[in-house]
Structure formats: structure tokens, C-alpha cells
Amino acid sequence: MAKRADVLVIGAGPAGIATAIAASLKGLHVAVLDYRKPPIEKSCGEGLLPNAVSNLRSLGVRLNSAAGFPFCGIRFSDEEFSVSARIAKGTGYGVRRAELHRSLVERACQVGVSFHWGARVTGFDERGAQAGGTHFPCRWLVGADGQNSTVGKWANLSSQQSRLTRFGFSRHYAVAPWTDLVEVHWGPGCQIFLTPTGDNEICIALLSHDPQLRIERALTYFPEVAKRLEGSRFLTAELGGVTALGRARRVVSGHVALVGDASFTVDGITGQGLSLAFQQAILLAEAFERGDLDYYEIAHRGISRAPWRMTRLLLLMDQSAWLRRKVLRLFAGNPALFTKIMSAHMAEAAQESLKATEVLGLGWQVLRA
Ligand SMILES: Cc1cc2nc3c(=O)[nH]c(=O)nc-3n(C[C@H](O)[C@H](O)[C@H](O)COP(=O)(O)OP(=O)(O)OC[C@H]3O[C@@H](n4cnc5c(N)ncnc54)[C@H](O)[C@@H]3O)c2cc1C
User: What is the pTM of this model?
Assistant: First the structure.
């Protein structure tokens, strides 16, 4: 039997470690279990929006150009149109996933979180969780175990609703960034997005419905990007994974709460998964402090609405070439509108995010374009 924790976190991805740090900063004793061992890699676009950067800062994780590459905005392009928006407030960072994981673990250890690596959780009850023959007693249990959360299933929190699922691949290329923007290139049934992650490297992520499509073949759809990458070395292996839009039915049940992709997952194209994970982590720690997990349930719902709407919009653009062309033509002709929408999407503060009426207004303008 392990020592009793106030909070036991299952999953040491970004959401789990951020929750552990936030709870520890509230004076709670926190233990984290993960069946993998650090540094934990994952297929990811590796863009941290300003909201993620400022929430990390509040947890004591400071990003600088030694850890990643600052970016100042975003550009959308297809074969015909190109439009960009600058971040109004704050900075985004491109940070390698392994580096982000290392920084989070380092900070968590500083604030007294204990880690149990190589420990797969196989079940839990109201007193704690079971991993590798050891019982880990706790007061609160956090499921931070990613998409298709097993904790969510055990706690009967999973939704029966089908998810909008796609496939994602990513790898690093040795090439100096040619821009301080994250570039999203829209192609036939797929997108690639480019995030600078260092002075001499770029992370390329591919998203599509085709599990067979890989980055090198997809680049043939994007000749301009392929030309820029010509002759550059691969710095890492190509990693693959599934990306989806879906949410748990609820995020709290008794002493169990879900965070990160386990609670709500947005398609990688939004670049918002990590921002959401850090916001949720901070809100959940506040709920622990109040001794009221319903506070987290309500707050979680509040911060999920705008990203849900934005993801739906971007996925509609993926599904319909006609709509994508209309939207990009509208934005290219009205860059101020694109800036407004992207500012809301990338906002440092969650309350600046896009409202439902504004999304409806955008839909109306697209139809008229
Ligand atoms: C292609 C792609 C591109 C993306 N690009 C971006 C981007 O640019 N910006 C952005 O913000 N987001 C992006 N995302 C989303 C982002 O990667 C996720 O939102 C984020 O990884 C969620 O973190 P998490 O901690 O919730 O889950 P995960 O990172 O999946 O971590 C879950 C952890 O739980 C552990 N675990 C699972 N089950 C158990 C168990 N039974 N016992 C013990 N441990 C367990 C796993 O080993 C894992 O370490 C992208 C996603 C994809 C697929």
C-alpha cells in the first residue's frame, strides 16, 4: 500500500502534470501514475497559444527561446488565398513535446509532486486506485488518461455520442523558420500546419481522414511548402495518433474528475488542446481548494463552448472544399474579420473568446460571400 495522497492523478501527460502542479500549489499532497516513462513523446503540432503560455507561467513554468520558439500569429492558406492574423496580446510558443514534458515534470518535482512511472492503473474504488499490485489510496482521483479515457469509462462519465475522428502525424525538419507565424495549409481532404520550434527546426503536423497518408506524400499537395523543405534533414521519427472532437457526458462523479483530452478533446487543427488542459487543471485545483467538484463541472462547461464551436467551423472547412474556399475568400478580402476571429481563438484570456452570435454572424457573411 502506497502513502495516502490528497489527489491521485492517473496520466502524466500535460493535463495530468499541470493538475498535479496546480493542486500542489494549493498545499495538497499529490501523486501521479503513468504506465510510460519520461520524456513522454506524442504526435502534436506543438503550438502553445498565448492562453497556454500564460497559464503555464502562473503554474511556475516559464517558456523562453531556449525551450522553444515564440510565434506572433497564424496564417491560413490554400492554393488560391492566404490571410494572416497577428496575436494582439501575449505570445505563442512552439515547444517540442518532449521539452514541454521535461519542463512540467521538473516544476512538479520542485513543488513536491511524487511520480510513479511504469505504473498502469487497472482499476479504482472509492478509496483509491490499483496499479501493478499496489493500492494507491487517495481522497480525490483525477482521470488525465487522454482520449478514450479508461477512468471516464470506469466512472461512467463517457459519452455515447460518436466522435469526429481524424488521423494526425508529426515530425521535425531541420530548417530555419521563414516566418514567425504558425502556418496552416489547407489541401484536398487534409491540412498541414507548420510550427517553428527552434532557430533551426520546424514541427510539421498533418491531419486527415486517411490513416495511410503520411507527411512526405501529403507534401506533394503543397508544392510551396515542399520547396522550402527541400534537402532538409528529418530530426525526429514521424509519430502518429488519432485526433477527435468529443467530450465526456460529465467531468465529475463523486470523488473522480476528468481533465485534458479525457474530459474534452478538440481536433488538433484548433491548436487548443493544451490551452484547454492547463485552464482545466487550474480550475480543478480551485475546486479541490473549495472542496466542491461541482464548481469544476460548471466552469469546465463554460470554457468548452467556444472551442467546440470553433472546432466545428474548422471541421466544416475540412469537409467541404466549397465552404473552405468561400471562407478563405471572405477572410482574404476582409483580413480584419480574420484577425478578429483568430484573436478570439488565440486570446490570452478565455473570456475574450468568440460568442455564439458572432459565429452565426460569420456564417451569414460566408453565405453571402
Ligand atoms: C496531430 C495532433 C496535433 C496537435 N496539435 C496541437 C497543438 O498544436 N497545440 C495544442 O495545444 N494541442 C494540440 N494537439 C492536442 C494535444 O496534443 C492534446 O490535447 C494533449 O496531448 C492532451 O493532453 P492530455 O494530458 O490530456 O493527454 P495525453 O497527452 O494523451 O496523456 C495521457 C497520459 O495518460 C497515460 N495513461 C493512459 N492510461 C493510463 C493508465 N491506465 N494508467 C496510467 N497511465 C495512463 C498515458 O501514458 C499518457 O501519458 C494535437 C493533437 C494531435 C493528435
Answer: 0.95
